[in-house]
């Protein structure tokens, strides 16, 4: 895919991506977008939680600029048809269609893995993300009222889902 004369590639994460993905997390997951900022204490800690091939990464002309990660929401066998996802795109690359492409590829990837549902959590104050997820076909499944105290106010946590078997 060409992206303003640039080539966008979506691929599985590799060991070499760790530091770049950690840097993206530090830029994207702030008080505005998460209950608390994400700052990995070490590369080893990041790799323990996000091992290679647990994310699809977006690469523009060889530069990793975003990702969508997958994990099982629980360890319960009856819940293994669901992936919980999280997505981040470097601020310098946002609003170029990279997030949309990542989610499209994530849906394909999850279906190939036999999954029937993708779910995610988003803060009620993150209106841009809420609109983005709705545009990508996600629906609100539930809301945890006043779940977090952020910047001197209570914020709801919204659970959203995309059903792959529709």
From TrEMBL:
An annotated Gene Ontology molecular function: acyltransferase activity, transferring groups other than amino-acyl groups
A Pfam entry, by short name: Acetyltransf_1
Record keywords, A-Z: Acyltransferase, Transferase
Xref: InterPro entries: Acyl_CoA_acyltransferase, Bact_Acetyltransf, GNAT_dom
PROSITE patterns in the cross-refs: GNAT
Keyword Acyltransferase: yes
Gene3D superfamilies reported for this sequence: 3.40.630.30
Domain called N-acetyltransferase: residue spans: 8-165
Full protein name: N-acetyltransferase domain-containing protein
Organism from which the protein derives: Paenibacillus azoreducens
